[in-house]
Amino acid sequence: xxxxxxxxxxxxxxxxxxxxxxxxxxxxxxxxxxxxxxxxxxxxxxxxxxxxxxxxxxxxxxxxxxxxxxxxxxxxxxxxxxxxxxxxxxxxxxxxxxxxxxxxxxxxxx
Length: 110
Prior knowledge:
Blueprint: H1 10-27, H2 35-41, H3 47-62, H4 74-93, H5 100-105
């Protein structure tokens, strides 16, 4: 077992990888790193569009802090979606299309 697998965040790292796949299946080529999304937002000047996608997810997190949603179990799911968008954006900025299969074969399976 590698060091990261024994950490507290290992289940969340797996959940982010699963969310990446779920989003790809749902949105197809229109995800941030999909062909259509990538063509629209690959230009570094389009970071505002990436920020909008991230803030939309953060907004969904904030909805869990209204008076009627205290201790809502959906908060974890929304935080994982925020992490997915942030990691995908970070991978675009380093010039690499993040492919979760490679992560699963490498980092996530070590």
